[in-house]
Design brief:
340 residues; Quinone Oxidoreductase, Chain A, domain 1; alpha/beta; 6-stranded parallel β-sheet
Length: 340
C-alpha cells in the first residue's frame, strides 16, 4: 500500500510503498477514506516532539474509512461498514478506564504516535474501538470528528463545564479552537473569539461567536472583553498552546472563573498564584475525548448542530501531503484532509 512515512524528523514525509497491514485477533483493517492533518502531526515533523514509536512511522490520527477485513474474533463491525477511528485507543481495563476517564489511560495508544496512522491506504485497529459513521455524514469531511471535534466537545462539556448564559473566551480559532466556538455557542454561552487572523474570526462569528477580538489591534484584551460582554468571562478556553496565549486567557477571567488548557505547549507558563488563590480561579487541562462521547458528537454532526464544511478548508491527495503541512505552518485555513 502507499503511505506517507516519517523517517527523519525535520524532513518532509515520504510517500512510498509499504507492506499492507494484516489484522490480528480482534482487529479490523480499515481502508482509509480521509485523514485530517492536525497540529500534532506538525509537532512531530517540525517541533522536535518524539513519537512513542520511533521512526519510521506513518502519522495521522483523524481517520474515516471502510472496514475491509477482520481478524479472528473481531466483533462489533462488518466488512463494508463506514467507520471513524478514534484518535486514542485506551486499554479498557485500568482504573482510569473503569472510572470513565479513558482519555487519560496510562496505557493508551494513539494512531500516528504509538501505532502507524492514517496517512496511508490502510490502517489496522481494534475492531471494538471503531465508531459507526452514518450515511448522512460525508466521510471525507467527517474524518475530523475523530479529534478536531471530539477534543473540543470534551473540553467544553466535561472539563470547562460550560453552561448556558455564561461568558466564554475562546483563545485561538484554528482547527480545534474554531470547534470550541461551535460547542460553546451550542451550549448557550456568549462566546468571544480571540485570534490574530481576521478571516478566522469572521468564520467564528458565523459559527456562533457573539464577539471577536484581534489581539494584534487591542492594547488590553481583558479590558476589551469586558467592554464587549459587559464583564470578564466565566470561562476561558486556550486552544493555541503558548505561554503568551495562556497568560492572555487568564487575563480575561472574572472572579471565580475557570481556565481550560487545550493547546499543547512544551514551554512552562507563569500565572499569578496569589490571584488563583484569592479570586478562586480554577485551572484544568483537557486531553482528547472519552470513547463514550464519540456517538454523541457524531449525532450532533448528523443533525447539523455542528458544521463540518466551514472547517474543512482543503482536501489534498496523499502525494500532495506536503501542501497540507505548509498550509498549517502558514496558519491558513482550519483543517486540511488527506485522501489516500
Amino acid at each position: 500500500m502507499r503511505a506517507a512515512v516519517l523517517r527523519v524528523p525535520g524532513q518532509p514525509l515520504r510517500v512510498e510503498e509499504v507492506p499492507t497491514p494484516i489484522p490480528g485477533p480482534g482487529e479490523a483493517r480499515v481502508a482509509v477514506i480521509a485523514c485530517g492533518f492536525c497540529h500534532t502531526d506538525l509537532h512531530y515533523l517540525d517541533h522536535g516532539v518524539a513519537t512513542a514509536k520511533p521512526p519510521p512511522i506513518i502519522l495521522g490520527h483523524e481517520i474515516s474509512g471502510t472496514v475491509e477485513s477482520l481478524g479472528p474474533g473481531a466483533e462489533g463491525v462488518a466488512v463494508g461498514d463506514r467507520v471513524l477511528v478514534p484518535a486514542v485507543l485506551p486499554c479498557g481495563h485500568c482504573e482510569y478506564c473503569r472510572t470513565g476517564r479513558e482519555n487519560i489511560c496510562p496505557k493508551m495508544r494513539m494512531l500516528g504516535n504509538h501505532l502507524d496512522g492514517g496517512f496511508a491506504e490502510n490502517v489496522v485497529v481494534p475492531a471494538k474501538d471503531l465508531v459507526p459513521l452514518p450515511s448522512e455524514i460525508d466521510p471525507i469531511a467527517g474524518c475530523i470528528i475523530s479529534d478536531a471535534l471530539t477534543t473540543p466537545y470534551h473540553a467544553v462539556v466535561h472539563r470547562a463545564r460550560v453552561q448556558a448564559g455564561e461568558r466564554v473566551a475562546v483563545v485561538g480559532c484554528g482547527g480545534v479552537g474554531i470547534n470550541v466556538v461551535q460547542f460553546a455557542a451550542g451550549a448557550g454561552a456568549r462566546v468571544v473569539a480571540i485570534d490574530l487572523n481576521d478571516a478566522k474570526l469572521e468564520v467564528a462569528r458565523r459559527l456562533g461567536a457573539e464577539q471577536a477580538i484581534n489581539p494584534g489591534r487591542s492594547e488590553d484584551v481583558g479590558k476589551e472583553v469586558r467592554r464587549l460582554l459587559g464583564d470578564a468571562v466565566d470561562v476561558a478556553i486556550e486552544a493555541v498552546g503558548s505561554p503568551t496565549t495562556i497568560a492572555l486567557s487568564f487575563g480575561t477571567l472574572r472572579r471565580g472563573g475557570r481556565l481550560c488548557l487545550v493547546g499543547y505547549s512544551s514551554a512552562p507558563a507563569t500565572l499569578p498564584a496569589p490571584k488563583v488563590m484569592f479570586l478562586e480561579y480554577s485551572i484544568v487541562g483537557s486531553l482528547g475525548c472519552r470513547p463514550g462521547d464519540y456517538p454523541r458528537v457524531v449525532e450532533m454532526v448528523r443533525r447539523a448542530r455542528i458544521q463540518l464544511d466551514p472547517v474543512v478548508t482543503a482536501r489534498v491527495h496523499l502525494e500532495e501531503i506536503g501542501t497540507a503541512a505548509d498550509l498549517l505552518r502558514k496558519g491558513e485555513g482550519f483543517r486540511s484532509v488527506v485522501l489516500p
